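Sample 3 of the quickstart, ligand pyridoxal-5'-phosphate:
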Amino acid sequence: MSTPSENASNETAGTGLKSAEPGSPRPESAVESALGNFRPLIRSLKGYSAPPQGEMIAKLNQNENPYDIPAEWKDDILESMRSLEWTRYPVYDPPDLRAKLAARLGVEPDRILLGNGSNQILYLLGTALLSPGDRVVISPPTFSLFDTAARIAHGTVIPVDQDPDFSIDGPKVLAASRNARLTFVCSPDNPTGHTVPPDFLEAVCRGTSGLVAWDEAYGEFWGETAVPLIERHPNLVILKTFSKAFGLAGLRLGYLIGHPSVVAELKKVNIPFNVNLMSNLTALKLLDRPEWVAEQVARILSERNRLSGALRSVPGITPFPSAANFILMRTPDGDAVYNGLRAEGILVRPTEAHPLLKNCLRVTVGKPDENEAFLAALHRVVKKVQGSKFKVQS
Ligand SMILES: Cc1ncc(COP(=O)(O)O)c(C=O)c1O
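Result:
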């Protein structure tokens, strides 16, 4: 029989759990051993991160819509939520939501697949399509998740860099996509705000036996869509989201439009019940009020144009043209300007390391007072950064 003191030495204090027996692996090496089960690729990834959001004067880093839905609509939705049974799974692949979306888009409901944000659909594409070594064409600088989702799904990413003016390198993309399993095209592109002509998309669809994923997350701000092209190209899938123009980033709802047979295959891989009760109700509500969404888009566009003009007059800042709800700008020193703005309570987005994005930051169009606060801070920060650069050089 063991004495109390022997017991104590064999237990992790107060937990009742036995500590390591002599000869068993030390906790750190046990962790290492657990981590050894991960694919080396996963260990090498940096992973997505977003800075804490509290205490900011203006949060202009994630291309969100600054205009929340009216409080009465929220009350209606919450009232409906109250009457639902939260113990039950939501409706599977909600037919009412797909029907309403389909009517808005002018397509049949069986062309629509719903996702928990369009990010989830990106991962779904990778899982459903890619076998080890399958080629995936992307055009950097572009949305980083295309690369991440493809690599996690064992794809081999073939990057075809954009031209220095951020237009897509048409001939190279066409050549690379010919024998690719999947080609991503993003328009308007994130982070550049540049667009790709739908004619080019058709050429890619014709030239490849693979699937072409056209991401128009910001399409409502651009005013163009590739949806009419899906009738002609069964290998085209279009990704859209409720996170931007519809302002529902917090509820996570995205969708894909494609050929019914392609959609049916993708659905086999989709996560069941990935659209929760609240996202479903809220999306239905907004789809009944297209004029409200159009109004918010118009407000954001007018503010974007004003912000672009104002940025052009900040010494040292070069904004690039944008068809979306954000603006990419070149600064004298990306890190210093980012940190300076952050210290003033303004959160913008640093860009990926890419030679075309040297010293660039991306700013989301916010409400007028947020944009004013950003502009005032930017004037001060750039002046300071340029002053200190000048001192170092002289
Ligand atoms: C190009 C692009 N596609 C997709 C998404 C993700 O959208 P969701 O919120 O629907 O996952 C974003 C978000 O920033 C984006 O920029």
